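Figure 3 (text version): structure tokens given as input.
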């Protein structure tokens, strides 16, 4: 049986949202909400292996930030078509994108201030990287697919070239003296305490552009499921070839091996989610994920600001029944995640459906 998987499929007719995209975005948020609690509770070799790599290496948790960048690229194309279907011109669409990117950047600035006490315009951090990547990537949607693909493939390699041209005392990927951090220290915002270089926004933009290109690739209804394996295996092969050539997986330096590895993970997820969405149970499950995905920004901010407080409140409610033990480690974070999941459901119920047709569903 031949499965044809186009990005235009799975559009929910009620509000013209792409179910697969929203489900992937919601799944990423739920991983953030539940993941730390599960890792801390289980605390075994497997869970430690999927936690964030300290520097060199890559884990499942290390693909989260780039996942939102990839989905931002996909959303840019679908959103553009929706607004063009409403009769908006290119200028209005671009102005909306600029305002959205600035707003997202400033939300990231204030979120960092309220969670860490640092007030900075440094373009690192999840929301700020997404904002800049979104803004850079937005302009590439008007270029030919071949140029989009060339940018997404070449920029990470050029970024590595810059690291090799200006190595630190311990080489190109010096943890504290790589060229990205040296540049940051020379600028007014200084280096990021976590070792994330501002140059990483270039790699982030390349991921956004790859998301743009992927819409055209996957929405072709003449392609079968096996075509989805082409970019998955291609990116995975590139990642391990680069790693074997001496370019390690380092998220904080956004090396090209890391770049292509996370792209392979996204394409594999896109293939898997598209297949699952074809089943009735899968579609039902994804609608619960999509509720979170459609409110991803709001929930991400609220979870970072109040997630620990909600978990502490759940722990307080547990005290009369459970004083100590593993349940006191696992139930509070799971309770906090569930609270925000229910909040997402209420936010979604309050929204009015979009009565306008979505060109992506044609």
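Below: residues designed for each position.
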């Amino acid at each position: 049986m031949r499965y044809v998987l186009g990005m235009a499929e799975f559009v929910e007719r009620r509000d013209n949202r792409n179910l697969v995209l929203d489900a992937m975005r919601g799944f990423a948020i739920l991983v953030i909400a539940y993941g730390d609690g599960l890792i801390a509770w289980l605390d075994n070799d497997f869970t430690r292996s999927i936690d964030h790599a300290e520097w060199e290496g890559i884990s499942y948790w290390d693909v989260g930030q780039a996942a939102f960048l990839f989905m931002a690229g996909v959303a840019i194309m679908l959103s553009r078509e929706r607004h063009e279907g409403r009769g908006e011109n290119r200028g209005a669409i671009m102005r909306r994108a600029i305002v959205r990117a600035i707003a997202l950047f400033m939300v990231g600035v204030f979120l960092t201030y309220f969670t860490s006490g640092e007030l900075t315009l440094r373009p690192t951090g999840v929301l700020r990287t997404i904002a800049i990547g979104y803004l850079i990537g937005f302009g590439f949607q008007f270029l030919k697919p071949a140029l989009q693909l060339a940018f997404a493939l070449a920029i990470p390699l050029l970024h590595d070239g810059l690291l090799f041209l200006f190595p630190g005392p311990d080489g190109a990927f010096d943890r504290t003296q790589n060229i990205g951090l040296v540049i940051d220290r020379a600028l007014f915002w200084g280096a990021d305490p976590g070792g994330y270089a501002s140059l990483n926004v270039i790699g982030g933009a390349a991921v956004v552009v790859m998301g743009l290109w992927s819409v055209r690739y996957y929405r072709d209804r003449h392609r079968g499921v096996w075509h989805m394996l082409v970019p998955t295996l291609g990116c995975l092969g590139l990642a391990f070839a680069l790693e074997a050539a001496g370019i390690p997986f380092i998220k904080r330096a956004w090396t090209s091996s890391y770049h292509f590895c996370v792209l392979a993970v996204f394409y594999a997820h896109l293939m898997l989610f598209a297949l699952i969405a074809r089943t009735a149970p899968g579609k039902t499950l994804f609608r619960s994920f999509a509720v979170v995905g459609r409110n991803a920004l709001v929930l991400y901010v609220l979870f970072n600001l109040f997630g620990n407080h909600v978990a502490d409140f759940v722990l307080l409610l547990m005290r009369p029944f459970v004083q100590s033990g593993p349940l006191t480690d696992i139930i509070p974070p799971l309770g906090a995640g569930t609270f925000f999941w229910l909040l997402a459901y209420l936010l979604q119920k309050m929204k009015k459906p979009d009565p306008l047709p979505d060109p992506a569903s044609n």
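The first helix runs from residue 19 to 42.
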